[in-house]
Amino acid sequence: MTEKSFRREDERLLTGRGCYTADWNLPRQLHAYFLRADRAHAKILGIDAQAARARPGVQLVLSAEDLDKAGFKSLPGGVAFEGVGGQKMKKPFWPALAHTRVHYVGQPLALVVAESALLAQDAAEDIALAYEDLPAAVGFDDATRAGATQIHPEAPGNLAFEYESGDAAAVEAAFARATFTSRMTMNSQRLVGSPIEPRACIADCDSASGVITVYTPSQGINGMRGQLAQVTGVPADKLRVMTRDVGGSFGVRGGAYAESIALVLAAQKLGRPVKWVATRSELFQSENHGRALSLTGELALAADGRFLAIRFDDRGDLGAYATMFGALVGTRNLAITMGGVYRIPAMYARTRLAYSNATPVSSYRGAGRPDIACAIERLVDHAAAEHGFDPVELRRRNFVPPEAMPYKTANGTTYDCGEFAAVMDKALALADWAGFAARREQSARAGKLRGIGMATFLEASGAGGAPRDEVVARFDAAGALHLFAVSQSGGQGHETTFVNIVTSELGISGEHVHFHEGDPDLRMVGNGTGGSRSLYGAGSAFKLLGPKIIETAKAHAVAALCAGRAAPGASHVAPSTGHAAPGAGHTAPSAGHTAPSAGDTALGVDHNALRTDVQAVQYAGGAFHAGDRSIGLFELSRQLAATRDLAQGAPHPMDCAADCLFGVTFPNGCHIAEVEIDPDTGAVDVLAYTTVDDVGNAIDRASVEGQVHGGVMQGVGQVLGEHAIHDHDSGQLLSGSFMDYAMPRADWMRGIRCAGHPVPTKTNALGAKGVGESGTSGALPATMNAILGALRPAGVRELDMPATPDRVWRALRAARR
């Protein structure tokens, strides 16, 4: 694939020409404000909105009663698979507006719609609320202790689900014969997702057709439309979801929120567009949080350091309700790679999930994979330190070797390929691991503690839930090529990557190729963006689309060449850049759309007379060739466009589609962090960071490195500072703004050295493995292992994330005592 040093979307986004949800403004638009609960757990005794409704300019006030009358259902969530003993997950009804109780601070209670956003906010203050306060329980341990407040009657003891994977008896037997065992607990603290674009939504109902258009950031319009239909009862074919640019997703934009549901009803009732743009404070309280997991791992080793068994006791805080992905993150997403890159004969994991009076938790960058990678890699380092093994050689001794691939783990996951030792050796050289001792002495002379830590990790790219990934090619009246998919970029560079794939297949430049995501009027099958699957899902479909375009165009090229429409040596003529995008009413061809039949008279030539000429026409370099005659792909598309009335919705003869279905892949890598700690202040300085990632074939290296950089910084942010903290007595969010919640900054790291060791997979058409989660999956354990490596000589054996200066200083002080 051709690599580029720039991304196609960068100029548009960096010069302010992007179109985010808040940028949309519609005629006759109204504005909304949500009144939210100011306490974590209480009975609602009454909501009196009479004064608010009486305010001039207020158009509507909605409460839970209005949603009940409209027949709106529970927000979707939970898991369908069975847990321990065949149990089903306990999923309470989740109303878009709180009905009889509030269960977390920030839960929406009422929606006010007015002529301006400020007027709606002022009117919300006129709503009178009556509560009966109830005790709050925050976090898994608080919610499951004896005597804890009951949050939902459907979940006795607040336990929502219990899940297990692996063979408990085999693990117990392995531990019984082990020479060494190690145990440690890794807490992955609750995080606020904090995409740079605040969440916003506009709902617009066309009274004549009943079609509702919802403008919202998303990770894919298909999933969003399905969830909106499920809750509101509006048929999916009457729902249009509009998403253009998205300023970060990280999993927290993967599903429909309560606000979107309530806005749909408001638009239906008023017959006017209703717009809501969140404040950052609202998002801290009400946008799905991430992580909130605690993993206790145990490792059994033989005398020579061979791993015999591993087991985990995992606990997850779901928050107040079951989101679309929260329970999946804490169960299957942890279990699928709980053996990491190691050959471990016996494995077992148990997870318990509980409800608590806190913001609901869902997927957040990596969705469980960074957490289990961190737990495994910290446990391996802990075992090495505890029993006197070299951490590098202990890993090397236990890697799954390349010759064992495909390798089936003890709990049934099959890794397709990987060269884990080679990846580690490349990282060790790049990070100058051998020279660390001298650097540590240099730091010691300056009164600083220096540590180096590694993580050799593996994660599973998401399999997706759609039956296939479909992509479409359309040519416009000027002959330009438009590509369509239902994946959604939140900064991953889809526009660059997908166009590169198709132009490489077609042998053309990309200036007349245009990419569109999430066209609401082009109903396509496919997965949204999540779990790093867009490249090997939609990307593989685009690779198959290239030959499909050539196949579809070939018979037309035969007609053009044999009709004498292309003179000998005809140039590959590109269309003008003043093209118009295909019309909304232009329906997509089916995936099985092929070249015209023999009876088609494209360009006025009878194909029955040309059948012997088809084999003589070859495609190369962006043009069709027959002897000394040729016609460029775009010139052919422009000529064909002239024969059809595309403005009236007629399909272009070269329009076509392709689809595919590929499963899970396993990106892996070795990350090495080097840190220096000031023992007098506890401040941690990340001096160097090295990554070697096996992401299979990289289509656009700049995008790959950009995602690695971003993922590493998110991981370092969690290690050093990020923490969503609720008061355990009141349930109030204590870190409710960036004044109290430490976001990572560019000066937290000196630089990242990135390298690749691609081992292409055969499980998809591109040989790609995905990269979106890799940076975070490596950063959590590598950085924490480096910090513990610096602290162990000072007597510190354990430390939880985040390793803030205060925590580090207190740990050192306690060790000195």
Largest sheet: 7 strands, mixed
Shape: globular
* Binned strand content: 15-25%
On the 0 to 100 scale, the average pLDDT is: 92
Q: Can you give the helix content as a percent range? A: 25-40%
As a whole number of angstroms, the C-alpha radius of gyration is 29 Å
- How many DSSP E strands? 30
Determine the oligomeric state from the structure.
single chain
- The residue ranges in which pLDDT falls below 50 over 5 or more consecutive positions are 565-607
- Helical region count? 21
The secondary structure category is alpha+beta
Strand order of the largest sheet: 3-5-1-13-10-11-12
Distance from N terminus to C terminus (CA atoms, Å) equals 59 Å
How does the SSE layout of this entry go?
Layout: H1 10-14, E1 30-36, E2 42-48, H2 50-54, E3 58-62, H3 64-69, E4 101-102, E5 108-114, H4 117-124, E6 128-133, H5 140-144, E7 159-166, H6 168-177, E8 180-188, E9 191-192, E10 200-205, E11 212-215, H7 221-232, E12 239-242, H8 258-270, E13 274-277, H9 280-286, E14 289-290, E15 293-301, E16 307-319, H10 326-329, H11 332-335, E17 346-355, H12 369-387, H13 391-398, E18 407-408, E19 414-415, H14 420-430, H15 436-445, E20 449-458, E21 469-475, E22 481-485, H16 494-506, E23 513-517, H17 534-562, E24 618-620, E25 623-626, E26 629-632, H18 633-641, E27 656-660, E28 668-677, E29 684-694, H19 701-720, E30 752-756, H20 774-791, H21 805-816
Parallel strand pairs: 1-13, 11-12, 16-17, 22-23, 29-30
Antiparallel strand pairs: 1-5, 2-4, 2-6, 3-5, 7-17, 8-15, 9-14, 10-11, 10-13, 15-16, 18-19, 20-28, 21-22, 21-27, 24-25, 25-26, 28-29
Helix pairs in contact: 12-20, 16-17, 17-18, 19-20
